[in-house]
Amino acid sequence: MKMTEEPLLTREKKSRLVRAYLARCPVWCAWQVTYRCNYRCRICSYWKEPHTAAEELTVRQFARGAANLARTGSMLINLAGGEPLLRPDLAEIVAVLARRHFPFLTTNGWGVTAERARELWDAGLWGVSVSIDYPDAARHDAQRGRPGAMDAAVRAVEVFRDTRTAPHQRVNVMSVLTAENQRDLEGVVALAQRMGANFMVQPYGVLKTGDASHRAQPPVSEHLLDLRRRYRAFLSNPYFLSRFDAALDGGVDGCLAGRATFNIDERGLVAKCVEDRAHPIGSVVTTPMPELVRRLRQRWRANTCRACWYNCRGEVEALFTARGLVSALPMLFAESRVRQAAAGGQTT
Description:
Number of domains: 1
Number of helices: 14
Order of helices and strands: HEHEHEHEHHEHEHHHEEEHHHH
CATH architecture: Alpha-Beta Barrel
CATH class: Alpha Beta
Oligomer: single chain
């Protein structure tokens, strides 16, 4: 594949992202483009809720929302759900967001084709994370409630990897750490590295289902940090990984939801986080961004929640600590790390 140079627009967006960070404005949001899903995951209950395409934003509304968000600077926007690939207009959504922001995609990988992957990259997709929780198909398929889920995920990683057109376009394998897979994680890291992909992890959140039996048991932080030292593909921020034990044993104080991050649901309603979507503070389409920021900060100041340590929380909060910010700088060179990993195996 031919890799193009970083365009001027990308450099401008990076400058606006830095300005937003320095101005203490939000720099990351999760935008749930749909809550519809074709999987029946044991570690999520969204698929049990009634959702229809009719309640979702149109591409034009996404464009209005993206322009509104840009009033405080560029943002990292994770397109999630549900399963975003269920929307046939996903590339159009990516295109309107990419004019001012950095769109990422989180997907189970089902049904990815070279044509669709290339369409998403060409539209301006910055990176993609494909969910793989186990190194073997039987357990991953059981976890995700869909026969063939593992084969689809591996194929999606390979397709996205092979259709990229620019060095900054990142392909990640994302694992949810649970009690059932915490001893098997190295196999998934090794799989990601063999495929030439990055690897990232986040702990299961009880808020997703109310079932605490899936929660991993500490200690896990040192094991994760050891894997990161030994595998170039392991990209999660070490500050984030170092707090896993605290997160699994009582929770981490100081949540920045509403201050540095927030959530937008499929209707465009804004809340301080994905698990607080029942309490929106406005609409990304119709409420001016300065007012959204003001209301989000009010929610942040009153926020005492310690219930999650999702990567959308921990990875972003790492940027607001000296140690975490320094650790995040190598992320700029993630592509070279993965290329070296695929060629040379482990770092040790």
